[in-house]
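Allow me, if you will, to draw on your knowledge of protein folds for a short while. A protein sequence and the structure tokens that stand for its backbone fold form the material at issue. I would ask you to consider whether the tokens describe a fold that such a sequence might reasonably adopt. Thank you for your consideration; the sequence and its tokens are set out here:
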Amino acid sequence: MSNIPADLRYTKEHEYVRATSESDVVFIGITDYAQGELGDIVYVELPKVGATYGSHDVFGTVEAVKAVSELFMPVAGEVLEVNGRLDGEPALINTDPYGDGWMIKVRMTAGGDAGLMSPDAYRAQLGE
């Protein structure tokens, strides 16, 4: 059974969005379900600060021992910060996906978070 924190919103592709104290700024990462499917993550390619994306655009990739997967932007917006710890320690995504394993911090554009799932909807998608 996956860990599905109640304070997050989710995508069908298994990315999550975590709110911050600023209403239009969020952290983005992948769920423990996604990293479990990938296996041990050994490399992460993330965008540069200032890059802008539309919802569902590819913003990076994760490489595991036996797989590579694209990362899809769950919201439209501008990258404010990239988790630099992942450069030297990509396994943080496996060990702490909802804490230190976040990937990027984004300032959302207006209406940029449409289509995200609640924890209950995500749980239903996983069949849990």
User: Anything to note?
Assistant: The mean pLDDT is 93. The two ends are 7 Å apart (CA to CA). Helices lie at 32-38, 85-88, 92-95, 119-126. The beta strands are 8-10, 15-19, 25-30, 41-45, 52-53, 58-64, 68-72, 77-82, 104-108.
